[in-house]
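Q: Convert this sequence to structure tokens.
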Amino acid sequence: MKLIRKIEASLSSAPIRKKVAAYARISEEKGRTRRSLAAQVSYYSELIQGRAEWEYAGVYADGGISGTTDSRAEFKQMLADCEAGKIDIILTKSISRFARNTVDLLNTVRHLRELGIEVRFEKERINSLSEDGECSHYFPPSRRRKAASSAKM
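A:
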């Protein structure tokens, strides 16, 4: 009698690539030039595309705009793409590039954290999904108290 052996299908053992985007911003108030923004975009594009475990999800860049989130079209688009599941990790130069307003920073990082999206702040060496990823300890105590009470509203 012949034996029949069932072979189970297996999923590809290829690692799942993280969808990585970056956010860059310059403020013309500080005399920064468009070259600085172009340099940031180029840096992040090369960095993300140079990692085999990362899938390039784009670089979002706002130039000559203040740090508040209300007026930054690219920042808003990046958040919409996060909501749509197009991004797993956001890279940014520093907390001040991501948000100048403490309340906006905390609210945005907390929301992204709820979505499982990691934000990496290079200058401060913060990963928002790590234990100390809250970011609030980088602001003076008076701003932390104000931000904490405003963020709960």
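Helices lie at 34-49, 73-83, 95-98, 102-114, 141-151.
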